[in-house]
Design brief:
eight-stranded mixed beta sheet; D-Amino Acid Oxidase, Chain A, domain 2; alpha/beta; 452 residues; single chain
Length: 452
């Protein structure tokens, strides 16, 4: 058994797992990554936030990412919906369910970030991006085993037993510490029955890649072709993304409630085309583009965990919490949580990995993802609230800071969220307010925190 005892076993080789492994390997710890798939593999979540740069730089992979030629992302924009455009067959518009919102845009250069030297981040092909991160961890000294599916973790005792299957053979190894970076598979969350489903965010996405899309024609404007674009759709809780992958390839996806996909009898192409038709400039531009991949559906069942750590284990990235992806938060949250977890693991290594050693990691991770969830809930409840506040010079940079992903080291919730909540309460309590008809049914703010 001695030969197979590691300091840390990391379950999952995606951005959270490979970044954790890189930090630990750089610190001289003996770690192993067990990844169920074979890289490269396709993955959704193709747009980064600038805060991602901090972790990428610290583990020494930023130069590789830059040299990979990924499309640079300088900002983001949200295009207007139109309430008079017909909806797909069988879908009825709720009265004033979606407020018509003017185009909103911002550039990351508007606000400087500590530890971030560039005014851009990246749109990435996740197959290549994730492979670069995983190979980098191996180059730093982490042991990486792909096509290795973890079945169970025995968390009793100081040394943890990890049972896995590779090439049809079930084996085991031992580690003093286990990091669950298994993504939405949430291995330890399921094993320990920690998972709590979000009562509100039950979105579904249908997406593909397109060659030759005229991005500016699709937005109906100029100068934002290299941004992440969110196209509002004329029904509450529904939107589309437009993300540059390369000079010629663009990722496009439709996001709406799962019940609407069922209404299309799971015909993904029909579902996609019907919703795109509600945005005529995008629909026209897509007719001149060539689809490169079959349509793929992704479930977005947002969730939290009752605990993020214990004696000898922590949860990072999507294995800890998954939040609706409308603001491209997934990879940024994964890298920030991996950074926090690795710091706590390295600090605890000399004395042991008891749960109290991860108190700061849990507090910061839980707070950051809950604040982010609250921000998205405010947006979905009344999305004109977001466009109004980001146009206001008093609050614009506070919202840009959130959209940069720069909130993981905070000790208090960003003040702008409190201001937005106050405004929302005024709208909710005044049926005559001009925004009142734009409210979407969501649980009250007091019910939003499902993690405690």
């Amino acid at each position: 058994m001695t030969a197979d005892v590691y300091d840390v076993c990391i379950i999952g080789g995606g951005p959270a797992g490979s970044t954790t492994a890189s930090y630990l390997a750089k610190a001289g710890m003996r770690c192993i990554v067990l990844e169920g798939d074979s890289f490269p593999r396709e993955h959704v979540g193709e747009s980064l936030v600038p805060r991602s740069t901090v972790a990428l730089d610290e583990i020494g992979v930023l130069d590789k990412i830059d040299k990979a030629g990924f499309a640079r992302k300088y900002g983001a924009a949200w295009t207007a919906s139109a309430d008079d455009i017909p909806l797909p067959d069988g879908v009825r518009r709720r009265q004033r369910a979606h407020f018509t919102i003017p185009q909103v845009e911002f550039r990351f250069a508007e606000r400087e970030q500590t530890g971030v030297a560039f005014d851009y981040t990246y749109h990435v092909d996740r197959a290549r991006f994730d492979t670069i991160l995983l190979e980098h961890a191996a180059e730093l000294g982490a042991v990486v085993r792909q096509q290795t599916r973890v079945l169970h973790v025995d968390l009793d005792g100081e040394t943890k037993r990890v049972v896995f299957r590779h090439n049809g053979v079930t084996s085991e190894l031992y580690a003093r510490m286990v990091v669950d970076a298994s993504g939405r598979g949430t291995l330890l969350g399921r094993q320990l029955k920690l998972k709590v489903l979000d009562p509100e965010f039950k979105q579904y996405a249908v997406h593909s890649w397109f060659e030759g899309l005229d991005r500016e024609a699709a937005t109906g404007t100029t100068g934002i072709g290299d941004y992440t674009i969110i196209h509002f759709l004329p029904l509450a809780g529904s939107w589309m993304w437009q993300i540059p992958i390369s000079d010629t390839v663009t990722s496009v996806g439709v996001v709406t409630e799962k019940s609407r996909l069922r209404g299309a009898n799971a015909d993904l192409e029909k579902f996609f085309d019907e919703w795109v038709s509600t945005r005529p400039p995008l629909a026209q531009a897509l007719r001149s583009a060539r689809r490169l991949r079959p349509f793929k559906a992704e479930g977005d069942y947002s969730y939290s965990m009752r605990e993020l750590c214990g004696d000898g284990w922590v949860l990072v990235g999507d294995a800890a919490r998954f939040v609706d992806p409308i603001f491209s938060s997934g990879v940024g949250i994964a890298l920030s949580s991996a950074r926090l977890a690795a710091s706590s693991i390295i600090a605890a290594a000399p004395t042991g990995f008891a749960k109290p050693a991860f108190a700061e990691f849990e507090r910061k991770s839980r707070n950051a993802t809950q604040w982010w969830r609250n921000f998205i809930a405010l947006y979905y409840r009344l999305n004109v609230l977001f466009s109004s506040y980001i146009r206001d010079p008093e609050y614009r940079l506070d919202l840009v800071r959130l959209l940069q992903g720069d909130f993981f080291d905070d000790d208090e919730e960003p003040a702008v969220l409190g201001k937005m909540r106050e405004k929302l309460e005024l709208v909710e309590n005044n049926p005559n307010h001009p925004w009142h008809g734009a409210l979407r049914s969501l649980q009250t703010q007091a019910q939003l925190d499902t993690s405690r």
